[in-house]
Design a protein that fits this description.
Largest interface: A-C, 105 and 100 residues
Distance between the termini of chain B: 65 Å
Number of helices of chain C: 11
Order of helices and strands of chain B: HEHEHEHEEHHEHEHEHEEEHEHH
Oligomer: heterotrimer
Helix content of chain B: 25-40%
Number of helices of chain B: 12
Structural class of chain B: alpha/beta
Strand content of chain C: under 5%
Radius of gyration of chain C: 23 Å
Distance between the termini of chain C: 35 Å
CATH architecture of one domain in chain C: Orthogonal Bundle
Chains: A mainly alpha (about 300), B alpha/beta (about 375), C mainly alpha (about 280)
Amino acid sequence: MIMTRKDKLFFISLLPLSSSLLAILILSIATIALKSLDSLQIFGFNLLTSSIWNPEKGIYGLLAPLIGSVITSILAVFTALVLSLPLSIIIVEYLRGIVKNIVSSIVELMGGMPTIIYAVWASQYLVPFLKEFLMEPLHNTFKYIPLFSCRPITGFSIFATGLSIGISIIPYVTTIILEAYQSIPLAYREACYGIGATRYESIKIMLSLARPAIIAALILGFARSLGETTIAAVTVGNSMYLSSCLFAPGYTVSALIASQFANAYLYPYAESVLYASILFVVLISVALSFYGSSIIIRWRSKIVV
Amino acid sequence: MNRSIVIAILVVVAIVTISAYYILQYYVPQAYRRYEESSTSTPITTTIQLQGIVLQGAGATFVYPQIAEWARRFQSRYGVQIDYQSVGSGAGQSMFFQKVVDFACSDPPLSRENWLKYNGSVIQIPWLFGPVAIVYNIPELPRNAVLKLDAVAIAKIYKGEIVYWDDEYIKNLNLDIAGLLPHKEIVAVYRSDSSGTTELFTTFLYKASNSVWTKELVGKSISWPVEAFGRGVGGKGNEGVTQNVIQTPYSIGYVEWSYAIKNNLSIAAIRNAAGNFVLPSKETLEEALKNLKIPSSPLEDFSKILDSVIYVSGDKSYPILGPTHIILWRRYDDPKKAEALKLFLKWVAEEGYNYVIEGYIAPPQNVRELLIKALELIAS
Amino acid sequence: MYSWRKIREKLFICIIILLSLLAIAPIIHLVIVVSINGIAIFVKAGTSFFTGLPPTPLSEEIGGIAPSIIGTLLMTMISLSITITLAVFAAILTTEFPKNSISVAIDAIAKSLASIPTIAVSMIVYTLVVVPMKGFSALAGSVALTIIALPYAYTYFSMVLRSVPAIYREAAFSVAMSRWSAVIRVLIPIARKGIAVGVLMTMARIMGETAALLFTAGRFRNKVSFSPTEPADAIPLLIFDYILSPYDIWHQVAWGATALLLLAYIAIFFAVKLIVKEVKL
């Protein structure tokens, strides 16, 4: 893009504050990297190949938490997508006036609920409910699929965590989709109805216009699920056992830190290993974000509003 | 038109905020003073210069409720405030050594390496003790029945070797209710996070189970053998284990006594070194602490203390309990802080132990003497 | 063909109604649970809930959560101002210069920042702020909250600014407005409802964040403190500590605090939404 002198001045005036974002991230990653250096030097890639937490003997392996983090985040984003998209469509298309205001306000409000409350609610109400009405039936009918092959004893599992985190990010994703949807200019909606599309078809078309925003919200949701601590710590079951079944207890990186950081100082390398796990999670997320951002930018240039 | 409305609103908000600030600053200390006056009748009796000092502490979650109680009473008596954060024993020690907090409370004492590193400059006292209760959830048993277990049975359960509640071994320990024990799989609940409670539990199993439970299964965070059989569940924190035991029938778990009491869990009677089955209670715990052997000076190494507290002799002594320590510096830069700390230790030794809350037990006389010795050592 | 489209339409409506109910049911249930547990406590404690100090485990009365309220207000104000400023400027930058490599970097960075576990942010801020300051403080808590809230604020604002159709910007340039004027006088006013909602959501997130304050704020509950360099407490921290303890009176205080938070959101949300008018395109 060719910038005139005024453009350049504008750009430079925006730069200092914006690059503080960059500075914060670099500072954080630098701190994490420095603190994880010890364990990386000693354990190296062994941390990625095994799944053990034994600080007394000094053996660590982070495979279960890392896989658990990724899988719960995928589940959470999937849940959020499946549930918030219909919700936003209903709010925009089918509700009017004060009902619409109330419903959308409730949804936005829930975005601010402290995650500890979600966690307590999930562990006391949601997980037993899921165990009885979702996990056990699935287990009984689909026993032969390895994903459902283990019997849920308490319900605390990767599946429960994925769903709980998904429910907790519904408000945010819904609000973003709402905003994006509402700001599609009237002209497009009129055009759709003008050629005789049904409601369903015109919604489909308008959603595709809002797609970049939706994808952005989902990527953020994925990142947020990777970092979600309190809910994961309480619902994931906290087991280093790596199993292919969704209903078995597992671990996520944030739950691992929440459980083990308190006493990590008492062992020589435990703290450093925990920082290393954060580093791995952040690296995964950075890679994903860059990829996602480039897709969005490509899409955005195609849609001229 | 629009802009002036916005400006007007901003001005109103600013006025409201500033006036709220001043009102609260004036009103809240009033309310607080009223609160403290109503909670105790003894007047503030210390030198004025110590009022307003804040002591910062951090460490184990175990001791937090007790410190909250003590801090409130100490504050209304002397005006010194104590701020405690339950971040965990390890994090507490780390913050203490980084001088971010003034004292640390840690379930395990300083490890031998750490103690050697700071020898002479740190003081530790095991100022409070608390038992670990074995809790269970067997719907078939009536409320007043007490399950009896010994270390061998518990060890085998957590190793996965005893599978059903009506196993012969458990039946032999419980001849009176043997018929009621169901043929159901035992779900063993353990702590998934690193915890001093786990250390007490596993140390007891190691000491008392005649090599069924091996030394390498002792620690704050271990891999539980029963997990491999699919009958183990990890709970986060005492509240996690409590919830798991409540929600899962046929489960067994170990928690701090206060959680068992407050949540009405069924507690098992454990066989002690003298062969009797005892439940945790004030008498059985005091009995266990009667012969407590501790070093004579707070400057010494306490890393072997668990040995003399768990599974000790005594007809009525409860076998599973452990200390929590307070760790202080010998020298403080701020003379007022040193004074305040000394006052706090003195108050705890003389009065604090009258206000021990449910779930904890005051230490025996030799520990109180240690406290007095410690406060003589603190200087600035 | 015609009837098949009709069937698809009806099917569509049924499915999305079902899924929306499924989506909103947990939320409604949560609100009900919080209200039932919390409002009763409120009524029992009366106005002293706002001005008193938290109870000790042995006490009989509920006391209050004044230190936490003030701490939350203080940290929210500091953190919100920093977050909104940074996020708005970054959003303007990426909207005005979308293809610039710095914009792409900022976009990706904002997302990556969100994936740091919230407890890790607390650990990092502990190392960077608390240890050099040799003490916990509301300032450290605010820094941690800012780091956590930035990605959400940025994503929301950038989406809001982007949804203003380009035609308005072109109109602004055609009357020879400078770029800054175009942004401040045209873009932001058109998007003002969205920006207001963004500020609200960020504020709600900041007020409700728990794990970030675990190692930074200090949990100072004995006194109401207004200074940013002294240890402070926050409502979510109080809820976290108390609800995981075995004592019933502390559970009650925790639920009361949650209900208080929920009511505060409702009040502020409705106030702002009434004031800021939406611009229909």
